[in-house]
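We append the chain.
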Amino acid sequence: MNTARRIMTIDGIEIDVVRKAVRRISLRVYPGGEVRLTVPWLMPLSRAEAFVSEKADWLRKTYQRLREEQPRTLPPVSKEQRQELILYINERVPFWLAKMQEQPIQIRLRNMKSQWGNCRPLTRTVTFNLQLAHQPLPFREYIIVHELCHLSVPNHSPAFHALVTRYLPDWKERKRMQIK
């Protein structure tokens, strides 16, 4: 992926500015104090700077809270854990597809840094994070249902959450079971 980088500073906080093919601007603070501003290619830098200025109070508070925190990393997934996860996904995805009256999909597994899964409704491809192998079964089930609901509703609107609730009424409790 093509990207362009530069550094911006606000209130003594160094911000890594990354231009890339994204739709929206986003500002993230990571444990350890890394701050990243992701900016769409065509957005003027002045608009990005204004965005950071609007978020300055949030940035200071969040940076203070997270800079001392150590980044969390889950251990690598062993071959056995990978196989167990594949078996689980290959069992549960067809179950939920049938329940949702959806057609088969292509399933992928890979390590992902910032999400548990993603769904591409147009290609009917769902990718799951290998790190799900370290998560409890109720949380895994929630992620599967969440991603499969995106086949019908490709956003996080109230209609999407209503659909998730229809299939998993306790999804909020399951979501809280995540091991961080």
